Amino acid sequence: MTKTVHLLKLSVGTEDVAGLSAWQNTKRAQTDDGLPRHITRMWPKRADEILNGGSIFWVIKGVILCRQPILRLDEYIGADGIRRCAICCKPGLIRVEATPKRAFQGWRYLPVDDAPDDLPDGRQAEEALPPELSKALAAIGVR
User: Fold this and answer.
1) How far apart are CA 111 and CA 24, in angstroms?
2) According to the model, what pLDDT value does residue 58 have?
């Protein structure tokens, strides 16, 4: 039986969840069929586990704030002829309990047991706190 694993990725240059959402709504950030995607140099070695219900968890300003279910991994050949991986996700961001995370490069695997929980349905539509405040609250155990 195939396990499930998630990916953890920094959303570089993003100020908040709304900013990530706005970027994903641009044509440049979408596949030909309109799905949001993230293009990365490395192809995940654990692709089967990722495609078994995995999500990409987004770190914004040092805090894991949201996730997206991963639908597929597409081959993407850049203008430079280099093969890359396009991580194609379900549209829309699911907010999660704010969880501090130090900076890192690239993406990392995130075991299911270590992934932050989704915010309850009633809190998904709340206006998000600024990432710095979310980080400070999470550091003292307030989620």
Assistant:
1) 25
2) 97
**DSSP string covering 86-125:** EEEE-SS-EEEEEEE----SSEEEEEGGGSPPBPPHHHHT
Q: Are strands 5-10 and 55-60 parallel, antiparallel or unpaired?
A: parallel
Whether the CB-CB separation of 102 and 139 falls below 8 Å is answered with: no
Q: How would residue 103 be classed by pLDDT, with cut points 50, 70 and 90?
A: confident
Backbone phi, then psi, for 64, in 5-degree steps? -75, 120
- 74: number of Cβ within 10 Å: 16
Contact present, 36 and 88 (Cβ < 8 Å)? yes
How far from 103 is each of 98, 100, 127, 134, CA to CA, in Å? 15, 10, 25, 16
DSSP H stretches of helix in 5-62: 17-24, 47-50
- 20-48 per-position pLDDT tens digit: 999 999 998 998 899 999 999 999 999 99
- What CA–CA distance (Å, rounded) separates 136 from 100? 8
Distance CA 106, CA 121 (A): 30
